[in-house]
Specification:
The complex is a heterodimer of chains A (117) and B (111). Chain A is built from no helices and eleven strands. With 117 residues, chain A is mainly beta. Chain A is globular and about 40 Å long. The model of chain B has no long low-confidence stretch (mean pLDDT 93). A five-stranded antiparallel sheet of chain B has the order 1-3-8-7-6, with no helix packed on it. A five-stranded mixed sheet of chain B has the order 2-10-9-4-5, with no helix packed on it. The chains are: A mainly beta (117), B mainly beta (111). At the A-B interface, strand 4, strand 5, strand 9 and strand 10 of A face strand 4 and strand 5 of B.
């Protein structure tokens, strides 16, 4: 069964509104979680590394104020797309390693399809 | 680029045939991982091969790693229609606490 749960699986929102996506580790504690974005038939683009109890580390070119990440507990990280616009429409996926980041496979959520109208 | 680069970008074969996908990277790694993604879903981890390993098997999967050439290959034997998916390699770069993914190989198994 799934060890990382992502919710919602899809969401449609109007331009200018904010959308929150949740990522939960179900049977393990995740100090670190990763957020990716994927365009159709393309690779996953790492957006940020979410660290429990501290600030997220964003990749170059990713707007911190646009994509707010909160990792308040060892089993939950959230990504909030603020003031969403049509160009934010994409597939967002979270993942977490079971254990240390190094030499550990990642467990992925099933992704969230965001459509901004 | 730190990411793995897969080759070919797309591969279409008949059921029962073997499928081989290749991955190249540019820097020193701790390990290299292969993932599979079905359309519209998250990724599923297939296999992790450490930098000091040369070959690893898991069921119908065989992965090789050549650190001198900075390359890896994924072989799926006796392919099935259910193997149709995108396959990604992800090198874990030394010193970087993250995985970056390449463009992937879109594999289609024709019944």
């Amino acid at each position: 069964g799934a060890v990382v749960s992502q919710h919602p699986s899809w969401v449609i929102c109007k331009s200018g509104t904010s959308v929150k996506i949740e990522c939960r580790s179900l049977d393990f504690q995740a100090t670190t979680m990763f957020w990716y974005r994927q365009f159709p038939k393309q690779s996953l683009m790492l957006m940020a590394t979410s660290n429990e109890g501290s600030k997220a580390t964003y990749e170059q070119g990713v707007e911190k104020d646009k994509f707010l990440i909160n990792h308040a507990s060892l089993t939950l990280s959230t990504l909030t797309v603020t003031s969403a616009h049509p160009e934010d429409s994409s597939f967002y996926i979270c993942s977490a390693p079971r254990g240390t980041v190094r030499n550990s496979p990642l467990h992925f959520g099933n992704g969230t399809r965001l459509t901004v109208t | 680029s730190q990411q793995g680069e897969e080759d070919p970008q797309a591969l279409s074969i008949q059921e029962g045939e073997n499928a081989t996908m290749n991955c190249s990277y540019k820097t020193s790694i701790n390990n290299l991982q292969w993932y599979r993604q079905n359309s519209g879903r998250g990724l599923v981890h297939l296999i992790l091969i450490r930098s000091n390993e040369r070959e690893k098997h898991s069921g119908r999967l065989r992965v090789t790693l050549d650190t001198s050439k900075k390359s890896s290959s994924l072989l799926i034997t006796a392919s099935r229609a259910a193997d149709t998916a995108s396959y990604f390699c992800a090198p874990e770069i030394q010193g970087a606490q993250k995985l970056v993914f390449g463009q992937g190989t879109r594999l289609t198994i024709n019944p």
